[in-house]
Amino acid sequence: MRKRDKRPYHINIFYDPEDGDYIADVPDFKYISAFGVTPEEALLQVLIALEAAIEVLQEQGKPLPEASYRPAYLTE
After folding, report:
1. 21 φ, ψ (degrees, to nearest 5)
2. If you average pLDDT over every residue of the chain, what do you get?
3. Do 13 and 71 touch, CB atoms closer than 8 A?
């Protein structure tokens, strides 16, 4: 991966019993999610998608979303 602005984006990973896969998403990026057979695979796939989204935004001269999402336990 290329060197980039490393913002601390939160990533959720959870198991979807309906599909039998793990889902990873990035709340600060509304449309970024990925899945995998293992949590590690879901994480790797969502990191690839996140990197691609960041590159596109930067190429288009658009600002990156602020890293604003925090899990509930950090906001209390």
Report:
1. -120, 165
2. 89
3. no
